[in-house]
Specification:
Elements: H1 16-22, H2 27-42, E1 48-52, H3 59-71, E2 80-84, H4 95-109, H5 116-122, H6 127-142, E3 146-151, H7 154-176, E4 179-185, H8 190-193, E5 204-207, H9 213-227, H10 230-236, H11 239-252, H12 256-262, H13 271-294, H14 298-310, E6 314-315, H15 316-323, H16 327-340, E7 343-348, E8 354-359, H17 362-369, H18 378-388, H19 391-400, H20 406-421, H21 425-439, H22 443-456, H23 460-472, H24 476-489, H25 494-506, H26 510-523, H27 528-540, H28 544-557, H29 565-582, H30 586-599, H31 604-616, H32 620-633, H33 638-650, H34 654-667, H35 672-684, H36 688-702, H37 706-723, H38 729-742, H39 746-755, H40 757-760, H41 767-780, H42 788-803, H43 806-810, H44 814-824
Parallel strand pairs: 1-4, 1-5, 2-3, 3-4
Antiparallel strand pairs: 6-8, 7-8
Helix pairs in contact: 2-3, 4-6, 4-7, 9-10, 11-12, 11-21, 11-22, 13-17, 14-15, 14-17, 15-16, 18-20, 19-20, 21-22, 22-23, 23-24, 23-25, 24-25, 25-26, 25-27, 26-27, 27-28, 28-29, 29-30, 29-31, 30-31, 31-32, 32-33, 33-34, 33-35, 34-35, 35-36, 35-37, 36-38, 37-39, 38-39, 38-41, 39-42, 41-42
Length: 838
């Protein structure tokens, strides 16, 4: 491992390379800030940005990074002068003091060219004259360039120069028009937020958000890379490592500075390796947190001290009572503390009105307690250990701890006691993150959090949640193992039984799935989602009437307990409509789907299902209206446009069908159905040239799905038979053979050609046309073995059609004879395919 010096409290001391290597998440902001400064330097448009965030959030890191990037731009060297003021500019109490600090920064940045002697001469003048001379000096040094001011802790600086100094600064900036500012502050302050303030509306304000766990993981990986520390990098990727990072996230409140500090002992396991570095870290952080306390008013310190002593969240009313201040005062002070990043608020209670406040960084409480713990640091160690290790690991550590290690045993015993009696804040944060990822369907990320929960708790819910993610990721066998583990831990865990049933349905094991769901129904018969799962299972078993009864039970129970009640109820009505359609009970199906559109008027799926039922009922105008509604619900849906196109095609309105297919392709060019159906529409319109161009494009894109391609090629060949003239058949058959062979799909065309027997040998087709069709294909496929079987079928079919002699069929191999007998059966009235299906 390579030693690496990271300046936790002064990142500006780090090299540009290290700053870049440690930089995570905020690259778009850094690029935007750099672009604004470039525009300010190269044009008359001057931009001024104020970065807002609590101490340790990364403001100085951002300023330093932008500084080095700007300085590295060769084209700006003659267009820009940079004055980077010190992070803490003590003793600035007037505009003149600020001008002198800017001159000092320029002198340090440009020692060879800045006139230091002229600055010295200012001290010989009275203040008014010195200010005027300093202004002139800056104007002359900057010349026709732009002055970039990098100012940290702008709130302190503005407080120092007062209202008069702020007005003078604003006037100077306005009169000279050569300045661009990048400044920082812990929070918004009166100097920029009060409407009467000179700088109100002047800055482009950018709040820096807290680091998330994912941001912290990336930062720690970067640190591991810089330190050449493979064990740290590997540990971070494990569930235990992620849980430990989440511990630091909880302690640090999203503060990047603390992650850097804790990275030094993140992988340490034994108490000997851990306790001493932790106490040393607290000791090092104590002056930092004490300095932060010194920036607060007396009332704000009182509130923070109360929250430190309490160690948990409290309401405004309770804080006011314990601090002997009014609720109004407490609310006002807490608002300011929240803006400065000292506390965060959680609206709780049934109405969300009861807001609880707690320290944003629990580590602040621990660090400040170091000075109070006169009797020893045991409480701090206990609090830390119960967060650092899961309870199972604490018990293991205690079991393996030597009897003579009395202090260590006391630490561990107390930590286990606290962990068992109070909720683990990491679990709450994990649960929140898990639900967020699932709601956004980010199942890989959700599974990472579920792995943490398994490491932290190892309970039934954690395993069930991880299994849920595994199903969503298509890893059903692994999911099933997690559900079995969950049920070993809690045999009455309804969610695990439900998810197990879903996994078994995915695997086609419907009988076992039904047994799981019946167990859930015994445990909790009044949950609608269980009955929906049972409906799916009965459907898989082909027991459609039972599936309908299960859906009716779900709808009867209702979905009020679900946050997404409307979508669940909509799903139930749609599923019911589909089942009734399969049972050809079209009137009832239509009623179910109408209920779905009443629950969710903008349900694309419900409107399309209504269109399909109406299509089957031959109510084509109403079906078209439903397709229109689906398009209105989601104008960017390829599927809605595709269904509308199919409906037009069913009505032989092929021009309108082509337009719809084109719209579908515009919205998603990766789906094959609109491409292939467009080819058939062109054939039906006898626009064969356009059809073959579209077909070539479709085959180029979609030959990876041969079975699906067959389903589209069969009607395509039929369209060629019905729409092209008999003297064109040879030309177009040859073109089809050439295209399909070029894309290694000749077997698909061969299957479609064999299927043509069913419509070529109809009574109203003359023998001359039959011979022409057969001859065209025989000529087009000469010397291509893949077409021998369909041509043999066609030849046998023609001879059998002439003679009705079954001996002709017996000449064929048994498997070919069976296919041909199926093709020669009297065809039922062809109603056509459903729209949206193929």
């Amino acid at each position: 491992m390579r030693p690496l010096q990271l300046f936790h409290f002064t990142p500006s001391l780090m090299s540009p390379e290290t700053l870049e290597d440690l930089f995570v998440r905020r690259e778009p902001l850094a690029q935007r800030l750099t672009a604004l400064i470039r525009e300010s330097a190269l044009t008359q448009n001057k931009h001024h940005t104020l970065l807002i965030g609590p101490r340790g959030i990364g403001k100085t890191h951002m300023v330093a990074l932008v500084y080095y990037r700007i300085r590295a731009m060769a084209d700006l060297r003659d267009r820009l002068r940079v004055a980077w003021l010190r992070e803490e500019e003590w003793g600035v109490e007037s505009f003149l003091d600020l001008l002198l600090r800017i001159c000092r920064a320029l002198q340090e940045e440009y020692p060879d060219t800045f006139p230091a002697d002229r600055v010295e001469s200012l001290y010989q003048q009275e203040s008014g004259a010195a200010q005027r001379l300093a202004e002139r000096l800056l104007q002359e040094f900057v010349g026709g360039r732009t002055l970039l001011l990098l100012v940290e802790n702008l709130d302190d600086l503005f407080k120092g120069i007062g209202d008069k100094g702020q007005r003078q600064l604003r006037a100077f900036i306005q009169e000279t028009s050569f300045s661009t500012i990048l400044a920082t502050s812990q929070s918004l302050f009166n100097g920029v937020s009060r409407q009467t303030a000179p700088f109100y509306g002047f800055f482009r304000v950018q709040h820096l958000p807290e680091f998330t766990v994912e941001d912290a993981i990336l930062l720690l990986k970067n640190i591991a890379h810089l330190r050449e520390d493979p064990p740290l990098a590997a540990f971070i990727d494990t569930p235990s490592g992620r849980a430990r990072v989440r511990t630091v996230n909880h302690l640090a409140g999203g503060n990047p500075r603390v992650y850097v500090i804790f990275s030094e002992f993140l992988t340490r396991e034994s108490l000997d390796e851990l306790v001493e570095p932790f106490m040393k870290t607290l000791d090092e952080l104590t002056p930092y947190y004490q300095a932060r306390m010194s920036h607060l008013s007396v009332q704000q310190r009182k509130i923070v001290e109360f929250l430190c002593d309490r160690g948990a969240a409290a309401t405004v009313k309770e804080i006011a009572r314990r601090c002997f201040i009014t609720s109004q005062t407490a609310s006002s002070q807490l608002k300011e503390l929240k803006e400065k990043g000292y506390v965060h608020a959680d609206p709780l209670g049934p109405t969300g009105r009861d807001t609880y406040y707690e320290l944003r960084e629990p580590l602040m409480r621990m660090s400040l307690e170091v000075k109070k713990s006169r009797s020893g640091p045991i409480r701090l160690i206990v609090d830390f250990l119960r967060l650092w290790y899961p309870v199972t690991e604490l018990r293991h550590q205690l079991d393996t701890c030597k009897p003579e290690a009395r202090l260590e045993r006391e630490y561990l015993t107390q930590a286990i006691k606290v962990a068992e009696e109070s909720p683990d804040p990491r679990v709450r944060e994990c649960r929140k993150a898990f639900n967020d990822y699932v709601s956004r369907q980010l199942f890989m990320e959700a599974m990472g959090v579920a792995n943490e929960l398994v490491a932290l708790q190892s309970d039934a819910t954690s395993y069930s949640d991880r299994g849920f993610c595994l199903i969503a990721l298509g890893r059903t066998e692994e999911a099933l193992r997690d559900f079995e583990t969950a049920l070993e831990k809690d045999a009455s865990h309804t969610e695990a039984w439900t998810n197990r049933g879903a996994a078994l349905v995915c695997l086609g094991q419907y009988e076992e799935a039904l047994a799981s769901l019946n167990r859930v129904a015994e445990l909790d018969p009044n949950t609608a989602i269980i009955w929906i799962g049972m409906a799916t299972t009965y459907e898989g078993l082909g027991q459609l009437d039972q599936a309908l009864r299960a859906l009716d039970e779900a709808i009867k129970i209702g979905f009020r307990e679900f946050k997404t009640a409307k979508s669940e109820e909509e799903y139930a009505w749609i599923k019911r409509g589909k089942l009734l359609t399969r049972l050809t009970r079209y009137g009832e199906a239509l009623a179910s789907l109408e209920n779905a559109t009443q629950v969710s008027p903008c349900s694309e799926e419900a409107w399309l299902e209504r269109a399909r039922v109406l299509f089957r009922m031959e109510r084509l105008e109403e079906a078209a209206s439903c397709c229109d509604e689906a398009v209105k619900c989601n104008p960017a849906s390829w599927y809605a446009w595709y269904n509308k196109g199919q409906l037009f095609a069913a009505q032989k309105r092929y021009m309108e069908a082509v337009d719809c297919y084109n719209r579908a392709i515009e919205h998603d060019s990766k789906v094959d159905c609109p491409h292939l159906d467009r080819v058939q529409a062109f054939f039906e319109l006898r626009r064969f040239a356009e059809g073959f161009v579209s077909l070539a494009d479709a085959l180029e894109r979609f030959t990876g799905r041969p079975e699906h391609l067959v389903n589209h090629t069969i009607p395509l060949v039929k369209s060629l038979f019905t729409c092209a003239s008999h003297d064109e058949w040879g030309q177009y058959a040859g073109a089809l053979v050439e295209l399909y062979s070029k894309h290694d799909a000749a077997v698909v065309l061969a299957v479609a050609l064999g299927g043509s027997v069913s419509y070529v040998l109809l009574p109203d087709v003359s023998r001359t046309l039959i011979d022409n069709w057969y001859g065209a294909w025989k000529s087009a496929t000469e010397h291509l073995p893949v077409f021998e079987a369909p041509l043999r079928l066609m030849d046998a079919a023609i001879r059998y059609n002439d003679t009705q002699d079954k001996r002709v069929l017996l000449e064929l191999p048994a498997e070919e004879r069976k296919i041909l007998e199926g093709l020669l059966k009297p065809e039922e009235k062809d109603r056509g395919e459903d729209i949206g299906e193929r």
